[in-house]
């Protein structure tokens, strides 16, 4: 994504905390209701981390935002793109999905622990998307289409089955460390991409057609 679409956000040191976090600047019509307004999706985990600190702020308090920082420029010429997301890992995908007049066809595999953990499931649906939800906990009253339940090792088999639908030109992956290790391998400590391992390596993908957020 281009650098004018990304910002690096530094929290104000009100509680003697120091954070440096990469946030995706979402330019979609859904998110920007007013001119010059920027919205973020923040999930509170109660782990005494960044989301919890942001949630504790009241209206009128401030955070510091630095200049944009480029991570990846989106290539609109890819015909078929796969996005594999674990939990809130869907959020960096939104900017691409909300681009107007893109030529690509997208398949999204959204993995969550339970139905209540799925975010933005309705907002990302359109004719150019194929969305699969993979849920680890069996629940009653399932009202989401294309939902598959799995437990532990079965998840990897199911993800392979979805990927067999077609060969993709490019794959984006985002999720927690354990999820990344299974799917593609996590980024290195210095935040560089690192080697492609796991599921995607087994299916023939390499660093030329995979990006880890």
Automatic annotation (TrEMBL):
Which stretches make up the Oxidoreductase FAD/NAD(P)-binding domain?
83-183
Q: Which cofactor does it need?
A: FAD
As recorded in UniProt, coiled-coil segments are none
In this chain, FAD is annotated as bound at: 43, 50, 91
Q: Which Pfam families match?
A: NAD_binding_1 (PF00175)
Keywords on record: FAD, Flavoprotein, Oxidoreductase
User: Record's InterPro entries?
Assistant: CBR-like, FNR_nucleotide-bd, OxRdtase_FAD/NAD-bd
GO MF terms, alphabetically ordered:
oxidoreductase activity
| Top-level taxon of the source organism | Eukaryota
Similarity annotation = Belongs to the flavoprotein pyridine nucleotide cytochrome reductase family.
Name of the protein in question? Nadh-cytochrome b5 reductase-like protein
Tell me the organism.
Answer: Vairimorpha apis BRL 01
Q: What is the lineage of its organism?
A: Eukaryota, Fungi, Fungi incertae sedis, Microsporidia, Nosematidae
């Amino acid at each position: 994504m281009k650098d004018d679409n990304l910002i690096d956000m530094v929290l104000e040191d009100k509680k003697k905390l120091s954070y440096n976090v990469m946030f995706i600047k979402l330019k979609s019509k859904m998110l920007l209701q007013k001119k010059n307004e920027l919205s973020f999706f923040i999930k509170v985990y109660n782990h005494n981390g960044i989301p919890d600190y942001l949630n504790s702020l009241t209206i009128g308090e401030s955070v510091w935002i630095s200049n944009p920082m480029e991570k990846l420029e989106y290539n609109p010429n890819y015909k078929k793109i796969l996005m594999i997301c674990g939990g809130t890992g869907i959020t960096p995908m939104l900017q691409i999905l909300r681009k107007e007049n893109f030529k690509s066809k997208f398949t999204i595999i959204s993995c969550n622990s339970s139905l209540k953990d799925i975010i933005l499931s309705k907002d990302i649906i359109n004719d150019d998307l194929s969305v699969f939800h993979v849920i680890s906990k069996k629940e009653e009253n399932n009202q989401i289409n294309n939902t598959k339940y799995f437990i532990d090792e079965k998840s990897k088999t199911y993800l392979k089955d979805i990927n067999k639908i077609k060969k993709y030109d490019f794959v984006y992956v985002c999720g927690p460390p354990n999820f990344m290790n299974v799917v593609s391998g996590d980024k290195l400590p210095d935040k560089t991409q690192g080697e492609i391992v796991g599921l995607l390596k087994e299916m023939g993908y390499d660093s030329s057609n995979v990006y880890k957020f």
